[in-house]
Specification:
two-stranded parallel sheet; about 50% helix; mainly alpha; about 10% strand; Rossmann fold
């Protein structure tokens, strides 16, 4: 069963607190999460000048094939469609196609930051 917004509220608060802590320490970091809705992303941004979103965009077919090839991963493949149904593509994000290799994805992100 997919999580509800109420289920996600403590997780979003924890992510927001983590981001605030990183900013307060003056460090740079990458925080990975599936903030699928704009309201989730709005909830975790403590400073829009310092927090940047990277949208790793891919087709459901590509992501499904990658999930099927993972060993010991927690993502239930049956929930993938619910993730796409909930997805609100980000308004202000760096968009990177996940069909590329991990090295190419990192290069593309670094070039856009």
């Amino acid at each position: 069963m997919a999580l509800t917004d109420d289920d996600r509220a403590p997780w979003l608060l924890a992510i927001m607190n983590l981001i605030q802590s990183i900013i307060s320490s003056g460090k740079n970091a990458v925080v990975a999460c599936s903030a699928l809705k704009q309201s989730y992303r709005d909830a975790i941004v403590v400073d829009p000048n310092l927090v940047k979103f990277i949208y790793l965009k891919g087709s459901s077919e590509l992501i499904a094939s990658r999930i099927q090839n993972r060993i010991g991963h927690f993502m239930n493949p049956a929930l993938l469609q619910s993730q796409f149904d909930a997805l609100e593509e980000p308004r202000d994000a760096i968009v990177v196609d996940i069909a590329a290799t991990p090295e190419e994805i990192v290069r593309a992100i670094r070039a856009k930051l």
